Amino acid sequence: MFSPEGPSLRELAVQALSSVERGYDLLAPKFDATPFRTPETVLDATASALHRMGPFGTGLDLCCGTGAGIGVLRRVCRERVTGADFSAGMLAVARRRVRGAGPPVDLVRADARALPFGPAFDLVVSFGAFGHFLPSERPQLFAQVRSVLRPGGRFVFPVAAPARPGSAAYWMLLGFDAVMRVRNAVWRPPFVMYYRTMPFSALGRELSGAGFRVRLQPLPEFGRRADGSPRVRLVVATRPQDR
């Protein structure tokens, strides 16, 4: 799973027994060499879809990590891009990565559940972060995202189709979540990272409850499953215009 540049088994064990924040501080220098980083194929497909929706003025990468999503925003935003994450280590790596042409970038250490912004953004994206929030925390998280969007602004993120019951991916994700639940039952501080806590049905309901209009857009680059359903969708949640 890991390249030679990635973390060792010992390093992963230390990170897994830390808090989420401390674990990512430790993992940050080698994070981009792990399978946890969002693949370029997903980033490119999302950027292509956003190009068709845009252009946008200002953008926020929520839980930006080492800055993979910031690169997407710099392709589709004209004015300014912001990355927010609560790991100082991940932000330090992101600062080193931000270079080249594009709008200026601000990197802010912040908790996604208490964002230090007003309604300043036309677009918010997030990649691979929602497993770090318990189901009970998502309504607050989505309300925070809505609060930092301008009227008409969009909250956009990719979601893969759920693994089919009985498939290898299904059992792998189920096993991972089970291990994390046992770990959090016997060890403190907790490390919240689950893969199977955000079904489509709950996602649409919670975003609508936070005041968004929600639609799902297939990402054609990933094709369709045997039953015709998209392998990957883009969630597009829009803050309605004020009346």
UniProtKB/TrEMBL annotation:
The keyword Secreted does not apply. One of its GO terms (molecular function) is methyltransferase activity. It holds the Pfam family Methyltransf_25. GO terms for biological process: methylation. Keywords: Methyltransferase, Transferase. Residues 60-153 form the Methyltransferase domain. This is Class I SAM-dependent methyltransferase. It comes from Streptomyces thermocarboxydovorans.
